[in-house]
Every structure is written in C-alpha cells, then in structure tokens.
C-alpha cells in the first residue's frame, strides 16, 4: 500500500465553517476512518473500497477521488465552490500617485 496525491484536492466541510483539504489517499483514508459510524451509508462503503483499491494500485487515485466526491455530496460535506470574482476595485500604489500641482507622466 502506498500514498498518492490527487491532481486536485477535494475541499470537505468538517464543522461550522471549517474546511479540510483532502489531497491524497492517506488524507482520504484518515477522513473515512474518523467518519461517525452512525452517518455511514452506501456511498461511504464505496469510498472506502475505492480508497483501498487505489492504495493497492488496483485503480487510479483519481477514481478514488471521484468516489470521495460522491460520498461527500451524499453526506452533505462537499465544500461549496467559491463564487467567481465579479469586479475588482483598482488600488492606487504609492508610485502611481502624482503630487498635487504636477502633471501625470504620459502613458507608454
């Protein structure tokens, strides 16, 4: 058995506003082992099997990651995707400020 990193980590909600990044098979195994038995459903078992198979080299880490995402969605633990930035307010830098009474330099 060995640990492999995912191409893209999975963000999991682990409490009131706390996010945990699952970036490898070891992290996935750790999360699944600590998951409360009373909340385990079919997707949990599938994620455990996928993690074990990936650690044994039988499937790719990305296939195990997909099983983790399915489990997280079913359990209501997948961290919501951030909203894209709609606008950015420009901020003047000290070097851009022109002293009062002076002309600004021409734009190249």
Main sheet: strands, sense, barrel: 2 strands, antiparallel
What's the tally of helices? 3
State the strand order across the main sheet.
1-2
> What coarse outline follows from CA principal-axis ratios?
globular
SSE diagram, text form:
Layout: E1 5-13, E2 19-24, H1 25-34, H2 42-55, H3 61-75
Antiparallel strand pairs: 1-2
Helix pairs in contact: 1-2, 2-3
Give a brief rundown of this model.
With 108 residues, this protein is of the alpha+beta class. Helices cover 36% and strands 14% of the residues.
Give an overview in words:
The chain is α+β, with helices and mostly antiparallel strands. The chain is 36% helix and 14% strand. α1 packs antiparallel against α2 (42-55) and α2 (42-55) runs antiparallel to α3 (61-75). The N and C termini lie far apart (59 Å). Mean pLDDT is 80; it is low at 83-89.
Structural key phrases:
alpha+beta; 108 residues; 2 strands; single chain
């Amino acid at each position: 058995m060995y640990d492999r990193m995912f191409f893209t980590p999975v963000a999991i909600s682990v409490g009131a506003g706390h996010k945990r990044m699952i970036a490898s098979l070891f992290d996935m195994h750790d999360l699944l082992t600590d998951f409360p038995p009373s909340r385990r459903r079919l997707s949990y078992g599938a994620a455990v099997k996928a993690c074990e198979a990936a650690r044994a080299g039988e499937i790719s880490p990305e296939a195990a990651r997909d099983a983790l995402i399915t489990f997280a969605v079913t359990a209501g633990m997948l961290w919501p995707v951030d909203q894209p930035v709609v606008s950015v307010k420009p901020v003047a830098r000290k070097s851009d400020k022109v002293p009062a009474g002076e002309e600004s330099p021409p734009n190249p």
